[in-house]
Design brief:
The chain is an alpha+beta fold. Helices cover 24% and strands 32% of the residues.
Length: 138
């Protein structure tokens, strides 16, 4: 994925998506260790089912991390991610393939920033995480 060309960015432009491979248990165990969130609903299917879930679910912050990765790749070495905010709207399960999307909602010439609408979806119309980000360009 190449970073955004500041001069060509336009309001309403849909940017190159980031597709994450199927979520697997190893990834969830590694994320639990990295985040310090060892709640067993993320790694143990019996525990997840005991609390009424259909199976283990990914950490919400994992999908936020994916959106952070998308934004970081979009700005590349031309700037940095100034702001990132998300709302969790659905659960991510094992074997889900996630697509992270971004659309330009504002371009501030004076501050050299782009505001983005961002989301994670399992498939079109199945949005799991939504949010906003601001990219600051040098």
């Amino acid at each position: 994925m190449n970073g955004i060309d500041w001069t060509r960015a336009e309001i309403g432009q849909e940017l190159e998506p980031l597709v994450k491979p199927a979520i697997d248990k190893v990834q969830l165990v590694k994320y639990a260790g990295a985040s310090g969130d060892f709640n067993l609903i993320h790694t143990d299917v019996e525990t997840a089912k005991q609390v009424g879930l259909p199976g283990t679910i990914a950490h919400g912050m994992l999908s936020m991390g994916f959106l952070g990765q998308l934004c970081s790749q979009l700005v590349g070495t031309n700037g940095f991610v100034k702001h990132l905010m998300v709302r969790f709207a659905g659960m991510v399960f094992l074997e889900d393939v996630l697509t992270c999307r971004a659309k330009v909602t504002n371009k501030n010439e004076e501050e050299r920033t782009l505001d983005l609408e961002i989301l994670v979806e399992r498939e079109p119309g199945k949005t799991l995480t939504t949010g906003k980000a601001t990219l600051k360009f040098y």
